[in-house]
């Protein structure tokens, strides 16, 4: 299982042709207390970079983009009633969606952990 | 775009406390501290929050005759409140109006107490974003009939149910100060003007202090276990839950006191006699209604409706807009304010909110969203 990162602070953890997506701990910390999460419908397909979900903190609303193209297999329903789960476990229990990858080669354009740490520190 | 941001006297303290500084109204201001917006909000509702509001404008307006009635009559040309009968040591919330009855700003007008030898002088606190325009307007309209003096002072606000005990521990007489009164005081050797008022819906004080003593005063207050520093983020969610307008958002120069739902700021005598800027429109609207009016809006789901969100009827026809909206930590859900036609302004009216292209149900709600904690004075 490998985990990759986007410039917009999403993470994607890949297992075969499926992947779990969420926002990074850095993003969650920058957002502050998350009060609302809007998740896509299961079955819906997205292209890389599409608006896929919305996360709102006490401060503002932010889009969550599809890190790669794919179809939604599952969404984290627990976040709908308990959006604070994003802050509690941004890179594990606070995941947003599970995707079926349309084109695994798109992963090659994403950052590895080290490159993302650098990006987050300077972004 | 580069703009030169002004720095508050407490800038160093905000940074030392871990404040995240952002540009606001031309100043570098703390939007939050490490506690975070939500916890800062809840802290203020249960204990006491310290806010640096030194960006706000403080000024005095003085008439040469030294007569309260004279200065009151002058400012009454531009505000619709009862100022002539404002008692010594009392504060009035009022509105600076243009000749069309539009709101140029909201402001606090204080008459100094007996203990200060300043009859014929009013103390004004105005909004940061428009303070220079307010001063120019007052000078233009009052000319040499009154002298405006802008005060370069700091302003700290201590707000919350524990604020009175904290201030009372330093100034025993403050324990019985009713809401909307003002008096001079000495805290930790520092001369201050203590005003019982605020912008959170809680009991509390605003403390005007010389810039060079602001940090010492802030540290004295922060030394209390019940006091924590609070940023602009929580200030916004606190005032929103309290149903209080944010100038430039919930009230603008196109809105009148009637449309903005601020008719409580119109003095009884003023409504009968008029004689203030924009009185024609305002007195007419009092009878005929204002068309669009400001109301509270409670979304039924969890999605916050931010400023600019379209308010629609059940069948999707646009009727108005949200002017302030977000998440209310004390309410535990989204809260908002906006303008709708008078026909849709009754509490309980069902409306729809267009959030990212989807219609979400909401209802017109009574303001404030929380029970205010204002202290009106000793129970008789």
Q: Can you offer a commentary on this structure?
A:
The complex is a heterodimer of chains A (123) and B (380). Chain A starts with a strand and ends with a helix. With 123 residues, chain A is α+β, with helices and mostly antiparallel strands. By secondary structure, chain B is an alpha+beta fold. Chain B is 22% helix and 33% strand. Chain B has 9 helices and 20 strands. In chain B, the strands form 4 sheets. Chain B has a 6-stranded mixed sheet. In chain B, strands 15-18-17-16-19-20 form a 6-stranded antiparallel β-barrel. In chain B, strands 6-7-8-5-9 form a 5-stranded antiparallel sheet. In chain B, strand 6 and strand 7 form a beta hairpin. In chain B, helix 2 packs across helix 7. Classes of the chains: A alpha+beta (123), B alpha+beta (380). At the A-B interface, strand 4 and strand 6 of A face helix 2 of B.
What is the share of helical residues of chain A? 10-25%
Main sheet record of chain A:
6 strands, antiparallel
Number of helices of chain B: 9
Alpha-beta content class of chain B: alpha+beta
What structural class should be given to the helix and strand makeup of chain A? Answer: alpha+beta
Low-confidence stretches of chain A: none
- Return the string of H and E elements of chain B: EHEEHEEHEEEHEEHEEEHEHHHEEEEEE
| Count of distinct strands of chain A | 9
- The topology string of helices and strands of chain A comes to EEEHEEEEEHHEH
Name the average pLDDT of chain B.
Answer: 96
Give the strand order, joined by hyphens, for the main sheet of chain B. Answer: 11-12-13-10-4-14
In percent terms, what proportion of residues of chain A is strand?
35-45%
User: What is the CA–CA distance across the termini of chain B?
Assistant: 58 Å
Neighbour order of strands in the largest sheet of chain A:
1-2-3-9-8-5
Radius of gyration of chain B: 21 Å
- Strand proportion of chain B, as a percent range, falls in 25-35%
């Amino acid at each position: 299982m490998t985990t990759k990162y986007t410039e917009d602070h999403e993470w994607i953890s890949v297992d075969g042709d499926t992947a779990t997506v969420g926002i990074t701990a850095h993003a969650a910390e920058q957002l502050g207390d998350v009060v609302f999460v809007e998740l896509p419908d299961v079955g819906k397909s997205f292209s890389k970079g599409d608006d896929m979900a919305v996360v709102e903190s006490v401060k503002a609303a932010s889009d969550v983009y599809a890190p790669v193209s794919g179809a939604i297999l599952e969404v984290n329903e627990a976040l709908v009633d308990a959006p604070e789960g994003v802050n509690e476990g941004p890179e594990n229990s606070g995941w947003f969606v599970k995707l079926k990858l349309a084109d695994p080669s798109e992963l090659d354009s994403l950052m590895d952990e080290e490159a993302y740490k650098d990006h987050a520190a300077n972004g | 775009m580069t703009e030169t941001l002004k720095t508050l006297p407490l800038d160093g303290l905000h940074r030392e406390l871990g404040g995240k500084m952002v540009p606001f109204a031309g100043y570098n201001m703390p939007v939050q501290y490490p506690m975070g917006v939500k916890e800062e909000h809840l802290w203020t509702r249960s204990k006491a929050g310290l806010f640096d509001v030194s960006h706000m404008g403080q000024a005095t307006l003085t008439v040469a005759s030294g007569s309260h009635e004279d200065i009151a009559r002058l400012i009454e040309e531009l505000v619709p409140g009862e100022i002539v009968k404002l008692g010594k040591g009392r504060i009035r919330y009022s509105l600076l109006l243009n000749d069309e009855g539009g709101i140029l700003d909201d402001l606090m007008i204080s008459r100094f107490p007996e203990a200060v030898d300043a009859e014929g002088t009013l103390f004004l606190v105005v909004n940061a974003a428009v303070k220079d325009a307010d001063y120019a307007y007052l000078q233009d309209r009052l000319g040499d009939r009154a002298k405006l003096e802008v005060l370069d002072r700091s302003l700290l606000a201590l707000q919350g149910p524990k604020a009175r005990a904290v201030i009372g521990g330093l100034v025993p007489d403050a324990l019985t100060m009713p809401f909307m009164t003002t008096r001079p005081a000495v805290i930790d050797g520092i001369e201050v003007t203590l005003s019982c008022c605020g912008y959170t819906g809680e009991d509390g004080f605003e403390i005007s202090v010389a810039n060079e003593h602001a940090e010492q005063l802030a540290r004295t207050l922060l030394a209390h276990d019940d006091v924590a520093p609070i940023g602009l983020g929580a200030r916004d969610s606190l005032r929103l839950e309290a149903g209080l307008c944010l100038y430039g958002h919930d009230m603008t120069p196109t809105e009148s006191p009637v449309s903005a739902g601020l008719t409580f700021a119109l003095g009884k005598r003023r409504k009968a006699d008029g004689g203030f800027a924009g009185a024609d429109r305002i007195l007419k609207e009092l009878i005929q209604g204002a068309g669009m009016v400001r109301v509270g809006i409670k979304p039924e789901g969890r999605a916050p409706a931010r400023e600019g969100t379209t308010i629609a009827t059940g069948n999707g026809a646009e009727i108005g807009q949200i002017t302030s909206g977000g998440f209310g930590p004390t309410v535990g859900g989204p809260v908002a304010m906006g303008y709708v036609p008078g026909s849709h302004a009754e509490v309980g009216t069902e409306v729809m909110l267009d959030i990212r292209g989807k219609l979400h149900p909401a209802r017109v709600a009574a303001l404030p969203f929380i029970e205010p904690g204002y202290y009106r004075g000793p129970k008789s």
